[in-house]
Amino acid sequence: MDIKVIQALFLFVCFILSSFLIISTTRSRRRSHRTAATPPGPPRLPIIGNIHLVGKNPHRSFYDLSKTYGPVMSLKLGCLNSVVITSPEAAREVLRTHDQILSGRSSDNSIRSINHQELSVVWLPSSSPRWRLLRKLLATKVISPQRIEATKALRVNKVKELVSFMSESSEREEAVDISRASFITTLNIISNLLFSVDLGSYDSKMSNGFQDTVIGLMEAVGNPDAANYFPLLRFLDLQDNRKKTKEGCERLFRVFRGFIDAKIAEKSTRDNPKDVTNSDVVDALLDLITKGDEAELNTNVIEHFLLDLFTAGTDTSSSTLEWAMAELLSNPKTMAKAQAEIEHVIGQNGVVQESDISALPYLQAVVKETFRLHPAAPLLVPRKAESDAEVLGFMVTKDTQVLVNVWAIGRDPNVWENPNRFEPERFLGKEIDVKGRDYELTPFGAGRRICPGLTLALKTVSLMLASLLYSFDWKLPIGVGSKDLDMDETFGLTLHKTNPLHAIPVKKRIIN
User: Fold this and answer.
1) CB half-sphere exposure, 355, CA atoms < 13 A
2) Annotated binding residue at 451?
3) 192 and 158 Cβ atoms separated by less than 8 Å
4) Is the pTM of this model over 0.85?
5) What residue ranges define each of the domains in the chain, with the CATH number in brackets?
6) 375-408: per-residue pLDDT in tens?
7) Which of 241, 248, 353, 365 is close enough to 217 for a disulfide, judged by CB 3.0 to 4.6 Å?
C-alpha cells in the first residue's frame, strides 16, 4: 500500500478518535454540570428513594427537610422526581418567571380513575384548547364581575340563614360544629350559583353526606399514593384512593345529572329562552350547547366542570372559616379587636354587607393571617416541568414534579417575624395581598394556574366571618380553654382541622 495512503488513513483514524474524545468529554462535562446544578436533597434509598422521609403531613416533612437542604430541594419519591419550593424567591421563579414551562400537570392515580385529567380545568395542561375553553367559561359564565355583582344578594341571604341557625343554637346554649355550619352555607351559595337551589340544610343529615363526600374526595386526591410513585402498582389500588375517588365522584355526578336533565327537559318545553338575570351557570352552559357556540362542550364536560367548581368552592372556604374561628378563639384579645372594628363600622342594629368589608382593614388582616398559617392547599396543586428550567441556579429537569410549599413559606422566619404566632397586625398598613402578586403569601397560587375563584372565596369567607363576629360573642365548651384548643391537621388536597371546632354562640343583639 502506498505510504501516502497509509498516512491518510492514519490521520483519518486520529481525526475520528479525536472527535469521539471531544464529544465524549463535552457530554461528560454537561452531565457533570447538570449533576452539579441539580437541587440538593437527602440521600436516597434503593427503589423507594426518599419516601421514608415523608410523614402523614408532607408539607411539614418537606419544611423540616428544607431547613437542611434549602429552598429548592430535590427528592426522589419512588420513580417520581420531585422538586420542593420553600421560599418566596423560588416561588416567584416557578409561578412567574417560568410559569409557562412549569405549569404542566401530573395527574395522579385517583384522578385517572374517572378520566378527570382530560376534562378538568384543574388537571388539563394549560396548552390544551379545552383548558383554554374552560378558563374562558369560568371568566365569562361563572366568576365574571357581572355575575359576582348579580349574586351579591344571594350570598348575603345565605349568610343571614347561617346567623339565624347560630341564633337558634345560642338560645339553646348549644355548641355548634363550625365546620359543618360553614360548609352548609358555602354549599348553598355554590349550589344556587350553579343550579338555583339549596343543596344543604342545617337540620339535615344529607348535608353531612355532601360534606363527607367532598372532604373524602380531597383527601383521596391529596393523599400520598404508592401508585403515583410506582406506576406498576396502579392496578392494585393499595390505598383505595381510586375506589374512594370513583365512588365519591359518582355520587356527585348523579346529583349534577339530575339537575342537567331537568333543565334540558324544561328548555324543551319553553318557547323563549330564560331571562339572563334569572339564569344560573348550568343554564348558561346548556345554552351554549343548544346554540352550538362551543363545539367541544357537551354534558359530560359540563359534569366534570361542575365537579371542579363544587369541590373547590365549598370545602376550601368552609375550612378557612373554621381555621379563622379557631385562631380567634385561641386569641380572645384579637377576636375582641376584630369585633370592635365591625361594630364601629356597622353600628348596633345592622346587617353586614359585602360593601362593608373594604372598611374593615383589621378583619381583612385576620383573613390574610389565616391564609398565611392555614393555606387551604398547603402544596398547591402539583405542577410538572414541560421542559428543563433553571430555578435559583438549580436545574429542574423535564417531567419533574414541582411542589410549592406555601404552608412553609408562610412560616419562614426569614420572611415573617414570630412566624408561628397569629398576629393580624403584621398586615396593617401594608399592601401585601393573597392575589398572586406577593410570593410570600400565595394560598391561591399565581400565574396561569392561579385559582380563578379567589375573588368569590375572599368575599364569602370575609362576609361569613364578619357576620359571625358581629352577631355573637363566642365561647368554648365547658372544660376547653383557649390555650387548650388543638390545631391538629389532616392533610389532603385541602388542609382540615383533624378535630372539628365546636363553639357556643352568645347572642349580642336582636337578630331578624
Assistant:
1) 4
2) yes
3) yes
4) yes
5) 38-507 (1.10.630.10)
6) 999 999 999 999 999 999 999 999 999 999 999 9
7) 248
